[in-house]
Amino acid sequence: MGDTDPETVNILHAAFDLEYNSGPDPRTESHLREPHPVRNKAYALKSSLHTIGAQLACHLTDGSFAHELPSCEPSNPLPTAYRFSHWRTARVYTIHWSLTIILNKTLLKLLPTYEPSRYALEAECSTIALEICKTWENAWTNRPIGACHVWLGFVMAYEFCGDEVQSWILGALNRLLEDQGVGSGGGRRRWWGDV
Q1: 148 is in which domain, residue-wise?
Q2: Which residues are bridge partners to 69 per DSSP?
């Protein structure tokens, strides 16, 4: 992972283990009410992401990095889309939003099922998912390299979108695959509902 902080690596490994665990471990439910080192580190990382996110949101609001304009694509279920000053800027936003969703999903796995803050985490994921979707038109215009962030972003957003937007996400990913000539030989590779 290059220069990645070891604490971040540990959090990501724990998230992976939780995501692919066969089911809830009854021994951990009582443990979730007590201090939990991974959960505490995840909240610390969330705080750092929030600080960065506030700066990024400021630049979206003032229009210095992007403009939110009416969508130009008829099939887009969202009324607006972002036009970024550079494809690298779009990538920064998408990676930040995707990492926030990954972190929130980790926290959702670590928190007890009755924890009230779960609703705020899920709502934040839904809001961020739509923000990620607004990067599509900019990515399509700047493809192929300017669309490299779409794969991660759309896979993270998919789970937190409604049926119409999920269908559109799959169509967008498949359109990008076709544009890049993936599966144009004998076998066709396509994105399906199990993103």
Answers
A1: 38-179
A2: 81
Query: In this structure, are residues 74 and 128 in contact, taking their beta carbons and an 8 Å threshold?
Result: no
- Residue 46 within any structural domain of the chain: yes
- 141 is a domain residue: yes
pLDDT digit string, tens, across residues 76-105: 999 999 999 999 999 999 999 999 999 999
Instruction: Write out the two tokens for 29.
Output: 């439910």
**What's the predicted TM-score (pTM) here?**
0.77
Torsional sign, CA 13, 19, 20, 21: positive
Low-confidence ranges of the chain (pLDDT < 50): 1, 22-32, 186
Beta strands in the chain (DSSP E): 66-70, 80-84
Q: Give the contacts of 170 (CB within 8 A, at least 6 positions apart).
A: 158, 191, 192, 193, 195
Contacts of 143 (CB under 8 A, 6+ apart): 176, 179, 180
Residue from 126, 133, 27, 131 nearest 75 by CA: 133
Q: Are 15 and 102 in contact (CB under 8 A)?
A: yes
Output the pLDDT for position 8: 60
Into how many domains does the chain fold?
1
C-alpha to C-alpha distance for 34 and 29, rounded to whole angstroms: 10
